[in-house]
Amino acid sequence: xxxxxxxxTIRQGFRNIFRNKLFSLASIATITACLFMLxxxxxxxxxxxxxVKTAEQGVSVTVFFKDGTPDDRIKEIGDEVTKRVExxxxxxxxxxxAWSGFKKEYLGEYADGFTENPLANSEHYEIYLRDVxxxxxxxTYLKSITEVRRVNQSEMIANTLTGFNSLIGYISIGIxxxxxxxSIFLISNTVTIGISVRKEEIAIMKYIGATDFFVRxxxxxxxxxxxxxxxxxxxxxxxxxYNNMVTYVTNKFSMLSSLLKFLPIGTIMNTLVxxxxxxxxxxxxxxxxxxxxxxxxx
Amino acid sequence: xxxxxxxxKRKLKRRSLVDENEIIVLDRVSKSYETGSxxxxxxxxxxxxxxxxxxxxxxxxxKSTMIKLxxxxxxxxEGSVNVLGxxxxxxxxxxxPQFRRKIGxxxxxxxxxxxxxVYENVAFAxxxxxxxxxxxxxxxxxxxASVGLAGKYKAKTKQLSGGEQQRVALARALVxxxxxxxxxxxxxxxDPKNSWEIMKMLEEINATxxxxxxxxxxxxxxxxxxxxxxxxxKGVVVSDEEEGAYTDED
Lengths: 298, 250
Description:
The complex is a heterodimer. Chain A has helices at 3-19, 21-57, 71-83, 95-107, 135-143, 155-196, 199-207, 212-252, 265-295; strands at residues 60-65, 87-93, 124-129, 148-152. Chain A is of the alpha+beta class. In chain A, helix 8 runs antiparallel to helix 9 (265-295). The longest helix of chain A is centred in the middle third of the chain and has 42 residues, at 155-196. Chain A is elongated and about 105 Å long. In chain B, helix 4 (118-128) packs parallel to helix 6. At the A-B interface, helix 1 and helix 7 of A face helix 3 and helix 4 of B.
């Protein structure tokens, strides 16, 4: 292929967008709308999953030791527990720290009547989990340690969070797959209609000896450009809307501020940018390639 | 070895069907569509290099089918179609563009690219054979001047009259210097004055050595020009005369 032909093809692809303004606008609008919906759902799902994850990380298992367990052994158990895959963080609370915490939280000035620590032998570990669904395996392990007197766990919270997380996962996959299918259907339909109205033009090119490649290339360039524009617009809109929405929701529901911890826009965009551009450009390319092929048999 | 000999013999036999001087050879060609009677029935004809031929006949006589077969838009149901040395029954799909580039084609409805101007329409034919831009800038204005459209190269095709649009189509067909020019009812949408101008141009083009085949049912033109006339009726060649005419009996 001559360089001039290559640039001609690119130029024609750009020109086609302006020549067929109505089709171009319809295609770009369809792609924009579909990818915007997809982006919004993705942002919501990602934030919801992140919030559940944060809640999960707050769930801990408490381990108490039998009377007379030497401090060295308690430290050794702490080290072993820290190394386990289920564990994200281990916090040691001494008997004194436990008592002062209790005093501060529940007794206040009434604590002055106590001369000795009533919580002696209550040193313990608060163990935070990476994934709350792993709680049972950790508890089984902890209970198997001879020096362990008691293990406190919140089975109900763990089960609820695990179930909720799975539910969000399934729902989000379902919604995203449906949206993706609808997007692909709508976008390819728009591209198909846009190209079909130009089948006469394709036939003329073929009659005067244009190769399939020569006829198809400007259409493919056009399809890719439309896909790209249709992907970039919703990304920009989501980028600028996201922070405003986060601020609005945080202010409106300030009492839930500890729970509503939104992800930064960068985290959302990390996946959304390549996925949206991939879908837009991919559908533009495949849609135009396949549709033009139908009309090339002249 | 035996197989090779048979192949060579077949090749020689095929060559012998086509005289070097003949650029269109239809040998017992029939074309049937899925429904209805055959559009062409056992048609044989030979057109030599440099001839000017009219194909005439009423609607449904098979003229358009013949043009489509010659362009390899359709393939024959039976028989062989050989154009410019290409066996159109066997030509590979990727070779069709190369074949069509040697043919100029003019349609009744002009078939110009509506969203492009006159220059771009003609230049497009040069573009597809990858003519360098420098040459294209010389060739396109020259061919437009030869069809009397030198001053209208910037005009959009919809701004032109029917006669002018047909001239653009003619310029597009001629710019790549085709060996064969196929014209499917080139005057069908034109008034008598423009029709004659187009026919004069076709005669001039033929005088330079280009073979011209015109499908028409314009009796006045056919009977005035006195060229070779092949008459089709219900898919069959009923007459083939040098300096022929298109009469009511046809």
